[in-house]
C-alpha cells in the first residue's frame, strides 16, 4: 500500500512543480456557495493480493486483461470561500485483486462503494486559473469482506473554465486500517490496504458564480477649497476585473452625496470635511476617505457707503467723513479731499478754508482688490449771524412818475447791498409799486424794481440771487408802510433763504 501512496504524492509534487498558474486581480472561483463535483478515473487496489510492487507496474496493461478498473464519483459540498470547503462524496470503483484468493494476476476484482467526508484546502483559488488543492477526511467503504474505515486524502489541480464551472484532475486514496476488511486476508505483509483512484478527471459546478469584489487603488480630490468653489473628485478601481453591477457612491460629509468614479462638489460653509468614496457589489464593499479643508474665499475691499457731516459745510468748519467698507483686513484707506489735501483711516476729518464745490474721493484696498467711491460736498462761506436772523431790508422811495434812485434811496439800498453781498445764503425778491394816479403804473413799477436790481448788481450781488417784479399801482394804502402817496412810490427788498 505504501508504494501506491508514495507514487501518488510523487506524481502530484512533480506536476505541481512544473505547472504554470496564471494570476490576476479577478476572482476566479466562487465562495459562500454550494457545489457539485463528478468524475471518472482508474481504480487501483494495494493489498495482500495486489501484484504491483514497482512504480512501472502502475502502468502495466496486463492488469486490464480481466476487466477495466474504472471508478465513478460524485460529491456535494459547500465552499466557505474560494480556498476552503467541505464535501460529502460517493465513489464506486472496480478494484482488481481486491476480491481475495488466489493471489497474483488471477485474483478476482471487487466492486467497492466508498462514502467520504472531506475538507478541501486550495492554493491561489481566488486568483489563479489553475489552482492546486489537497483533501483530508475520513471514509467508509462497502463491498469487501467487511466495512472498511480509515483516513482519506487527495491531491489535485482545478482549472477554471467559467464563473460557475471548472475541470479537475486528482489522485484520491482511502486508507483501510483493517487489513482484512477488503480482501479478508491479513498476512502481515502490509500494515494497511489502500483504495486509490488515480487519475480522476471531472468537473465542478458552483451554484453561485465567482464574483470579484471592488478594489480601490486611489481617490483624488482637492485638499483645499474656497466656499462656493467646485472641486473634482475621482476614484481609481479595478474596473476591468470587478463584477457588475457595481455601485460607486460619494459622501461629502456635509449631507450631500454623489455617484460615479468622477464627480464634482462644492461646499457652502467653511470647515474640515471627510469625503468618503464607497465601491460595492455582491462580493463586498470597500471605502476610502480624504480630507478637504474649506475656507471662506478672500474678499476684496468694497466700499458700501461714504458720508460727510455736516453737508453742506461752511468754510472753516471741520467736516467728518465716515465710510463703510467690506473685505478682508487689513484695509488701507486713502482720502482725497479735492483741495490738494489727503487723509487716511476709515474715518477722517478735514476743514475746507474756501467755499466751493469739492469732490471727495475714498480709495480702499486690501491684498485681493481695491475700490473707489466719491461724493460732492458743497462748502458755503462763513456767514455773520445777521445772515441767519435778517427778515426785512430797507425800502427805496421814488419821486412822482419817476424810476430814478434818489440819494436817500441809494443810501438805504447800500445797506441792503452790503448785507446781501455778505450773506451768500440769501436771495432777494425786489417788488416795485406805483401810487394811485401815476402814469403807466405797471410799467413804472417794473422800472422802479429793475432800477433797484441794477443797483444791487452794481454792488456785487449776483444777478442769479435777484428777482425783480413790478406790482403796479397800490389801490389800498393799507399795504404801504407809511401813510401818504410817497410811501406808495416805493420798492421793497424781501430777503429769501
From TrEMBL:
Database matches in PROSITE patterns: OMPA_2, PKD
Its membrane topology: Multi-pass membrane protein
Source species, domain of life: Bacteria
Signal peptide: 1-25
Primary location recorded for the protein, binned into one broad class: membrane
Pfam families listed in its UniProt record: OMP_b-brl, OmpA, PKD, PKD_4
Name of this chain's protein: Cell envelope biogenesis protein OmpA
The species this protein was found in: Longimonas halophila
Amino acid at each position: 500500500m505504501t508504494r501506491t501512496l508514495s507514487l501518488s504524492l510523487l506524481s502530484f509534487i512533480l506536476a505541481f512543480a512544473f505547472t504554470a498558474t496564471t494570476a490576476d486581480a479577478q476572482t476566479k472561483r466562487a465562495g459562500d456557495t454550494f457545489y457539485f463535483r463528478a468524475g471518472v478515473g482508474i481504480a487501483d487496489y494495494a493489498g495482500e493480493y495486489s501484484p504491483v510492487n514497482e512504480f512501472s507496474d502502475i502502468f502495466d496493461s496486463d492488469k486490464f486483461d480481466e476487466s477495466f478498473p474504472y471508478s465513478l464519483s460524485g460529491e456535494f459540498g459547500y465552499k466557505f470561500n474560494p480556498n476552503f470547503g467541505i464535501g460529502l462524496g460517493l465513489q464506486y470503483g472496480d478494484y482488481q485483486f481486491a476480491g481475495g484468493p488466489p493471489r497474483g494476476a488471477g485474483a478476482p476484482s471487487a466492486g467497492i462503494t466508498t462514502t467520504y467526508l472531506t475538507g478541501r484546502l486550495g492554493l491561489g483559488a481566488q486568483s489563479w486559473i489553475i489552482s492546486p488543492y489537497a483533501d483530508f477526511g475520513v471514509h467508509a467503504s462497502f463491498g469487501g469482506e467487511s466495512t472498511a474505515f480509515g483516513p482519506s486524502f487527495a491531491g489535485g489541480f482545478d482549472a477554471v473554465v467559467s464563473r460557475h464551472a471548472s475541470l479537475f484532475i486528482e489522485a484520491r486514496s482511502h486508507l483501510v486500517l483493517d487489513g482484512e476488511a477488503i480482501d479478508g486476508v491479513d498476512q502481515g505483509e502490509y500494515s494497511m490496504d489502500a483504495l486509490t483512484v488515480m487519475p480522476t478527471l471531472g468537473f465542478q459546478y458552483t451554484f453561485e458564480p465567482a464574483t470579484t469584489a471592488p478594489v480601490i487603488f486611489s481617490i483624488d480630490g482637492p485638499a483645499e477649497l474656497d466656499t462656493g468653489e467646485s472641486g473634482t473628485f475621482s476614484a481609481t478601481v479595478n474596473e476591468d476585473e470587478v463584477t457588475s453591477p457595481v455601485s460607486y457612491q460619494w459622501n461629502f460629509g456635509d449631507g450631500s452625496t454623489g455617484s460615479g468614479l468622477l464627480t464634482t462638489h462644492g461646499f457652502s460653509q467653511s470647515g474640515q470635511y471627510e469625503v468618503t468614496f464607497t465601491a460595492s457589489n455582491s462580493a463586498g464593499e470597500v471605502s476610502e476617505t480624504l480630507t478637504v479643508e474649506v475656507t471662506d474665499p478672500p474678499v476684496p475691499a468694497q466700499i458700501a457707503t461714504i458720508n460727510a457731516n455736516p453737508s453742506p459745510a461752511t468754510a472753516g468748519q471741520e467736516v467728518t467723513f465716515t465710510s463703510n467698507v467690506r473685505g478682508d483686513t487689513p484695509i488701507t484707506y486713502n482720502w482725497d479731499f479735492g483741495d490738494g489735501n489727503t487723509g487716511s483711516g476709515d474715518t477722517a476729518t478735514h476743514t475746507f478754508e474756501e467755499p466751493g464745490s469739492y469732490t471727495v474721493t475714498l480709495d480702499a484696498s486690501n491684498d485681493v482688490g481695491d475700490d473707489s467711491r466719491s461724493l460732492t460736498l458743497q462748502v458755503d462761506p462763513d456767514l455773520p449771524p445777521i445772515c441767519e436772523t435778517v427778515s426785512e431790508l430797507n425800502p427805496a422811495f421814488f419821486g412822482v412818475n419817476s424810476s430814478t434812485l434818489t440819494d436817500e434811496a441809494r443810501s438805504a439800498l447800500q445797506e441792503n447791498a452790503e448785507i446781501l453781498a455778505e450773506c451768500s445764503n440769501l436771495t432777494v425778491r425786489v417788488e416795485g409799486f406805483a401810487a394811485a394816479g401815476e402814469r403807466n403804473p405797471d410799467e413804472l413799477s417794473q422800472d422802479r424794481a429793475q432800477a433797484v436790481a441794477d443797483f444791487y448788481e452794481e454792488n456785487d450781488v449776483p444777478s442769479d440771487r435777484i428777482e425783480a417784479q413790478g406790482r403796479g399801482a397800490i389801490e389800498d394804502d393799507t399795504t404801504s408802510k407809511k401813510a401818504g402817496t410817497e410811501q406808495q412810490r416805493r420798492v421793497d427788498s424781501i430777503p429769501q433763504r
